[in-house]
Design a protein that fits this description.
162 residues, mainly beta, 5-stranded mixed beta sheet, 3-stranded antiparallel beta sheet, 1 helix, 13 strands
Length: 162
């Protein structure tokens, strides 16, 4: 009986070790390694001048030994760059279209860069028509001239409608 009491803590500790995870031994010092970086937005996307497109990047990382899969893919907080800042600019993770053209965009994270994707910036789109004067009082028998201007996606200032 005394032996059983002395062996019980040892047996309990062994059972805990065997019951961990899937039975494999994993290093507590394992650091995932970035194997590949890609952008989720499809190449060939287009946005009108003045609008933005949210960019996302994903990384393929190694998993610890004993994991069910050798790698996993997850979103990363990458930095983005364009090859022509006159066509589009980057603000955080958003690409802002500036003028008609194409721009090549790459993501960078942890010393690696993604393959570039091409985004086309198209002409600004008409978002609102502003008619002036807004609420005129026109005496009976008189006429009133109105002006219609457009507010486009690339500016808040009304201009002639194209």
């Amino acid at each position: 009986m005394m032996r059983l009491r002395m062996l019980a803590p040892t047996m309990f500790a062994l059972l805990n070790l065997v019951g961990c995870g899937d039975g494999g031994v994993q290093s507590p010092d394992f650091t995932p390694v970035l194997r590949a970086l890609s952008m989720s937005n499809a190449s060939g996307s287009s946005i009108p001048a003045g609008r933005s497109l949210n960019l996302t990047a994903t990384g393929e990382f190694t998993n610890p030994p004993g994991s069910p899969t050798p790698t996993e893919t997850r979103s990363v907080s990458a930095s983005f760059a364009v090859d022509d800042a006159t066509v589009a600019r980057i603000e955080g993770s958003n690409l802002i279209g500036l003028r008609i053209g194409s721009v090549s965009v790459t993501a960078s994270y942890d010393g690696q860069s993604s393959a570039p994707i091409v985004i086309n910036v198209t002409a600004a789109v008409l978002e609102q028509i502003v008619v002036t004067p807004a609420n005129p009082t026109i005496p009976s028998g008189q006429s009133q001239e109105f002006t219609a201007m457009g507010v486009y996606s690339d500016s808040d200032t009304p201009r002639a409608i194209d």
